[in-house]
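Re: that chain you flagged

S.,

Sorry for the slow reply, it's been a week of failed gels. I finally had a moment to sit down with the sequence you sent. For the record, here it is as I used it:
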Amino acid sequence: MADTPATGGSGRDEDAYDYVIVGGGTAGCVLAARLSEDPDCRVCVIEGGPSDVGDENVLRLRNWINLLDTDYDYRYPTVEQPRGNSHILHSRARVLGGCSSHNTLISFLPFPHELEEWVRAGAAGWDAGTLLPYRHRLRNSIRPVAEKDRNPVAHDFVTAAVDALDVPVVDDFNAHPFTEGAGFFSLAYDPATGHRSSASVAYLHPVMDRPNLTLKLESWAYRLLRDGDGRLTRVRVRYADGPDGSVRAERELLLCAGAIDTPRLLMLSGIGPADELRALGIDVLTDLPGVGENLLDHPESVIVWETAGPLPPNSAMDSDAGLFVRRDAAEPGPDLMFHFYQVPFTLNTERLGLPTPPYGVCMTPNVPKSRSRGRLWLRSADPGQKPALDFRYFTDPQGHDERTIVDGLRIAREVAATGPLRDWLVRETAPGPDVTTDAELSEYGRRAAHTVYHPAGTCRMGGDGDAGAVLDPLLRLRGEEGVRVVDASVFPDLPIVNPMVTVLLVAERAVDLITGRAGPPPAPAGGSDVLGEEQR
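Prediction finished late last night. Pasting the structure tokens below so you have them in one place:
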């Protein structure tokens, strides 16, 4: 555990700051860097994991897959999924930078029409015209995969997808909204070093010597407490190297622990569905039935092919290219997405008894707008016990999510049967060419399903008449003063695309909501090849 800088002589009974940020992840790093720009503002970040500074295991983007199921990972299990895969471990990062220090850093702007849907759901002020201009405040270096990292097999995947499906090549997925296309992703990374441009690298590393910024690392927040005036101002913290202590916020508590740990912390503190909390022996502070509800994710399946031998070694992170398809012309955006892996991802197919090729590639069709909704809840009042996660995968009544996976497996086969990708492939190993009917593809696709690690929505914001909304549109916790939530749990719905950039945008806007600073001017016409790096 480390405090940076040292908090001084009074021990840990009651350290006080202007702002206390619970969670040093993607959003927390943005808030910490921005709020501490004011030298008179004391900012503290409570982060359960270690620093990423100088840690090549974390900083090397291509090593992301080796961080799963390690000490950098909280590894949250799911409850039984009758129509999905019950063996999924949801990776949540235990390191400074959060999931931006842990994931593939695939970086997409949200689609404008999705933000308008947020507004219609009660999130006033989160329209595209307000939120998207914050792209020019991002400090991360975000750009399409560099030419040197573009593996020939990924190039041939893009060519085959374009030819097989008659979709366009997309050179920059962030240049303008699109409905379909294939191309190389944009990543938050430095092509020269292969290092991440995570939230911690981009926002915190340059400012960690600020005397008004304190990082309490390997320190786990497990309960919020009221002060004498009844406001939630204090956080109980379990330190790695000593007794528990409290940290007090004199202005606001900012919860940035993510879509699992933020609602978990609220419920442990007595804020959530009252009857459930009382049943666990937790004193209820505020009855908010929406805490833990609306659990969202991007489920995906996988189809694997063996290649004749090892592939060329160059890559940014082994899943550098992708494909978007719009099956329904009435949809304003894509309704099916594929990542193309230059390695065989067989974690779930091995469990089904299917062979693992020594060399291979795979496609992972995923459901960009899943209609299934889950929830999380506490198993006990013990802060050390992990919560129960029920994503209810593939349970939407219309069967949309299941249909999307079946269509995705069929479309993946079309692409694989098209040159020049076809020339790399020896045989399909999962599910195998004999699996052909809709029923067979559905059974396989759901049992081999995985997650793109995008939980969201569990403390969603909404309008005054929305009984399920946990936050108001200013991100303030309903029924309490001085507490806001800033992470993916605030989303009313999950973006079609990988949501990290949306979290960054939400955090940048949250700083303005907290401080009263004016937002950025409307974005200039046209796009840019590079997002971020203080483009103002």
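What I noticed first: Confidence is low (pLDDT under 50) at residues 5-11, 525-530.

Talk soon,
D.
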